[in-house]
Amino acid sequence: MNRKRALISDTFKVKKRRYGTQKFGAVSDGDGPTDIRATLEYLMTLFPRRLFNDTLPQIVLKHQLYSIHNDKTLVDKELNKLRERGELLMFQLGFDADTFGLVFASDYKAKVLAGEEGRATRATVEKFLQKLPSPCTDLSFTKDKMLREFLFTDSEITQLVKSGVLTVRDAGSWWLSIPNSGKFTKYFIQGRKAVLGMVKKSKYSEVLKAELEERRTTSHVKFHMKYHIHDIVGAELVESIPTTSGILLRFVEP
Amino acid sequence: MLGFLTARQAGLDDPLRLRRAESTRRVLSLKLNPDRDVDRIHGNGINTIDIEAIEGRYMLSGGADGVIVVYDLENYSGKLQYTCKAVCTVGRSSKYVHKFSVETVQWYPYDTGMFVSSSFDKTMKVWDTETLKPAEVFQFEGNVYSHHLSPIARKHSLIAVGTKEPKIQLCDLKSGSRIHVLQGHRAEVLSVRWSPRYEHILATASADSKVKVWDVRRASGSLFTLDQHNGDKSKASSEAVNTAHDGRVNGLCFTGDGLYLLTTGTDDRMRLWNSATGENTLVNYGKVCNESRKRLQFTVSRGCSPEFVFVPCGSSVAVYGLHTGELVTMLRGHYNNVDCCEFHPDYQELYSGGKDCNILAWVPVIRASDVEEETKSANQVQVLITGNKIWKNPKVLELLHLG
């Protein structure tokens, strides 16, 4: 008899055993330890770099991770750990109060500096990136902080806004942002609308995930289909239902 | 489960562990039972239900037509098929019935001789259950969204009332007067709840996206306001400072021990707060659909480990793990929006009422007995596993030293 005291909740965990290598329909991810970093890297590969001529770092949205891992609280905790270690940066992308974009810190710094080559604002941006506390857990900065902690002057702050590293939030405070990300936001929202429209127009407003991935995309959808699918599933704009033929995506009325 | 039983027998485990394990198993197997029904009296949607805390036998329900019904939940017929009968009704023919929809009903916490109901006709009535006449009527200036009596109060008998006015009124049952007003909110107060742990602590939720926690003994304002970003001002826009949700906050529920507070808002989120410090525990429940313009009555299980939250979500009831935030199951059965749900802690049953005028009883599935167990006559083990009333049977409790 196992003398170790088990948690009552563990008694009710159902562990399904799969015999044989052939998997029909529903593919679930294992009960192994969740590797958020690996998932992040996989999602980063779905980001189309050449679309932006390599000027943007690879951006992943926070809720895309929820579509892969079941436990949202655990995902949040792991992301906070990565942010505290200084490896990951989180951004308020602006189109929804709840949507956050994630970029690897090293990626971000490299791309921003590359973008600033030969520009007048280069020196200020470099200074800002150096001053940025690592680990940086702040999404926005107030004027107070900029002037006192970072010792920037007003004109330098204007230069930073011009270069795109800071965006105006309201009088006297700025969001940390990714330069030239306007194009990304535009294509992303366009693509999301198009994919949602595809699901909605299907018979009964539902479509198998595998079939949706196969479909020919219109010119509105500039990103990889899988990127958009992870986004709409994670943001709970469609319901993900496991069936014997695979995962079914059903449109959810808002 | 047999492991738990053996450990309990041998004295290796605390008696409470077996009870909690069985309660949790029962909550995880909640289903609609064709044998259990609740009498259909309401002609319109059901807005609120309350099960009395003393015996767990009588249930009150308030409907959108102003009708209040008292049901008897106990099954003394000896048959499996049972309909919870309505014992008495304050119907449309009564002289004292509410003119408009009843929003909240609550039993007096200490005996079933009295109950309090509040309604959109701007009154709150304290009823005598025997005669079904109101013993006291409180008039207000705006629609009354919610009221609550403290379930543990010994030193006071205050009813906290949330109305369309931003001020929270405290009415005294003993003297019948409005003795206290709590100021601080800027919009209508949608939900009020006393803490089940401290009799002076009150939590209130308002349409101005704020949730405030008050100590009624204190003359100056609230103790603290719940902040969803935990003071991290960089996360949100500056108007959203100190808000519990990004929309109206319309549901409040303390956990059974009073240590945590759950809030739901029209931003489709549910948040779990530490009720002592006001800190957001950041448990992510995902999208909890919420379109209610009034108070949302949701409930937390008691006596299980881990605890579960039952939230009405559209036309079904969603069951989430309290601390993990994962969706355990969706209880589907209503034909229209579900407005309220209440957990019966003794039998681990859930009662939910909605716009389809039905109250549905979700009963734990009884494990089917095996062939060998059926042939044995007075088999105590069988009775333990298949009987669902056994935990209340004093003889068995005495035998197991669980009482």
UniProtKB/TrEMBL annotation, chain A:
Transmembrane spans: none
GO biological process, one term: positive regulation of Ras protein signal transduction
Lineage: superkingdom: Eukaryota
Family that this chain belongs to: Belongs to the STK19 family.
Cross-referenced PANTHER family: SERINE/THREONINE-PROTEIN KINASE 19, SERINE_THREONINE-PROTEIN KINASE 19
Annotated protein name in UniProt: Serine/threonine kinase 19
Organism: Sander lucioperca
Automatic annotation (TrEMBL), chain B:
Database matches in InterPro entries: Rad28/ERCC8/Ckn1/ATCSA-1, WD40/YVTN_repeat-like_dom_sf, WD40_PAC1, WD40_repeat_CS, WD40_repeat_dom_sf, WD40_rpt
Keyword Nucleus assigned: yes
Subcellular location, record wording: Chromosome; Nucleus matrix
GO biological process: proteasome-mediated ubiquitin-dependent protein catabolic process; protein polyubiquitination; response to light stimulus; transcription-coupled nucleotide-excision repair
Keyword terms: Chromosome, DNA damage, DNA repair, Nucleus, Phosphoprotein, Repeat, Ubl conjugation pathway, WD repeat
GO cellular component: chromosome; Cul4A-RING E3 ubiquitin ligase complex; nuclear matrix; nucleotide-excision repair complex
Annotated WD repeat ranges: 95-137, 182-217, 242-283, 331-362
The protein's annotated pathway: Protein modification; protein ubiquitination
PANTHER family cross-referenced by the UniProt entry: DNA EXCISION REPAIR PROTEIN ERCC-8
Oligomer and partners: Part of the CSA complex (also named DCX(ERCC8) complex), a DCX E3 ubiquitin-protein ligase complex containing ERCC8, RBX1, DDB1 and CUL4A; the CSA complex interacts with RNA polymerase II; upon UV irradiation it interacts with the COP9 signalosome and preferentially with the hyperphosphorylated form of RNA polymerase II. Interacts with ERCC6/CSB (via CIM motif); promoting recruitment to lesion-stalled RNA polymerase II (Pol II). Interacts with KIAA1530/UVSSA. Interacts with a subunit of RNA polymerase II TFIIH.
Physiological role: Substrate-recognition component of the CSA complex, a DCX (DDB1-CUL4-X-box) E3 ubiquitin-protein ligase complex, involved in transcription-coupled nucleotide excision repair (TC-NER), a process during which RNA polymerase II-blocking lesions are rapidly removed from the transcribed strand of active genes. Following recruitment to lesion-stalled RNA polymerase II (Pol II), the CSA complex mediates ubiquitination of Pol II subunit POLR2A/RPB1 at 'Lys-1268', a critical TC-NER checkpoint, governing RNA Pol II stability and initiating DNA damage excision by TFIIH recruitment.
UniProt protein name: DNA excision repair protein ERCC-8
Phylogenetic classification of the source organism: Eukaryota, Metazoa, Chordata, Craniata, Vertebrata
